[in-house]
Amino acid sequence: METKNIGLRGIEVADTRISNIDGEKGKLIYRGFDILDLTKNSTFEETAYLLLYDNLPTKNQIDEFNAKLIEARYIPKQMQKNMGNWRKDADPMDMLQAFVSALAGYYDEEFSNKDASYEKAINLIAKVPTIIASWQRIRNGLDIVDPDSSLGHAANFLYMMTGEKPDPEVEKIFDVCLILHADHTFNASTFTARQVASTRAHMYSAASAAIGALSGELHGGANTEVMKMLLEIGEVEKAESWIKEKIKNNERIMGMGHAVYKTYDPRAQVLKELSRKLAEKTKDPWFEITEKVETITISEMKSKKSRDIYPNVDLYSASIYYMLKIPMDLNTPIFAISRVVGWAAHIIEEKFAEAAPKPALYRPKAVYVGKYCGPQGCEYKTLDLRK
Ligand code: ACO
């Protein structure tokens, strides 16, 4: 017997009302709205509301939602003190995972009804940026910067991290990046969150598991790896030979390829233009090198491997964050600042779906290919008889 569904590719495991990908057309919708429309017209907070509550908010609803998010931005001082005990070179994703899990120790765990879960979701969305910014300050020996209630979600994170309020253009670029990363159906980290939630574990537990899944380089960790690649390539003239060598050696090019898109990832298109715009301003080479990586990878994969491959969301976000002077190892935690919205929406859907078929505890089947000694099983030998 052979395993048929390796990696669960193409297997439908639950209904969702949250988002949808058309992998052939390169289209992504959140709750029925095209992602491209949202990047043009919406804000991260409004998009978060949409993903959580299934509707664009009215003026009163968004005001109330924003007020709740702003109030929930603070994290316990004790938590910040505990961060000070960590190694300063610890990976920020490990730190984030640990402290998101630790939130359960500070806040009551009433998740038994949908309303309480929405409150936890808001708490989580508000606190993830503060955890990351606090760690960035602490590991650099700097004073912590408290949240600023006059700033939106995107600007407040940049402010808590740097101590400086970003200019409106930078704020807008960062806000668009957050909108683009907020949800993406049953990607690896969201599926992890849903799987944990399906056991009726609580929201912090499911979200911290999702952070672990996001950290891997085949998923959210790719954006950090992209920037390492760009720095290694260093100049546009070296990109072609660098990529050709990697593909010749069957190595993966980070930021390229996707399990669902068979064409250009629509998020990558928006990010590409943002990266281009930023590079025109900063005169950095990173956009140009990334574009070269894109074109050479596409042509090499087609000619040498007969495979169509396109940029994914991580290819151009790397250069954007670098040009915004965000430390490279915060690229993936920033992904989490946004994706935590999707995780929370999916955790709530997993637990409180009202329409049939309701989700069930995930329990796939494995194909056993291990030792077989006949129908009686293998003979157990005591320790003294084993060689
Ligand atoms: N570079 C080189 N080869 C690639 C790449 C790539 N980026 N992506 C896929 N391939 C090749 C694989 O080596 C494999 O070749 P083989 O059949 O000869 O063994 C083949 O294409 C299929 O690869 P799979 O991983 O099985 O298929 P899939 O298309 O589902 O891969 C994935 C999706 C894992 C994202 C892959 O494209 C990849 O590893 N990309 C690089 C990492 C990355 O950018 N991840 C971020 C994805 S977006 C996100 O998670 C936020």
| Overall CATH architecture of the largest domain | Orthogonal Bundle
Q: Could you name the CATH topology of the largest domain?
A: Citrate Synthase, domain 1
The oligomeric state is: single chain
Looking at CATH, the homologous superfamily of the largest domain is: Citrate Synthase, domain 1
Shape: globular
Q: At the first level of CATH, what is the class of the largest domain?
A: Mainly Alpha
List its salient traits:
single chain, 387 residues, mainly alpha, Cytochrome p450-Terp, domain 2, 16 helices, 3% strand, binds acetyl coenzyme *A
Structure description:
This protein has 387 residues and is mostly helical. The chain has 2 domains: 228 residues, Citrate Synthase, domain 1 (Orthogonal Bundle), CATH 1.10.580.10; 102 residues, Cytochrome p450-Terp, domain 2 (Orthogonal Bundle). It is 56% helix and 3% strand. It is built from 16 helices and 3 strands. A 3-stranded antiparallel β-sheet has the order 1-2-3. A hairpin with a 2-residue loop joins β2 and β3. α5 packs antiparallel against α10 and α9 packs antiparallel against α10. The longest helix has 26 residues. The radius of gyration is 22 Å and the shape is globular. It starts with 18 loop residues before the first strand and ends in a 35-residue tail after the last helix. The model has no long low-confidence stretch (mean pLDDT 95). The site of acetyl coenzyme *A has 18 residues, from α15.
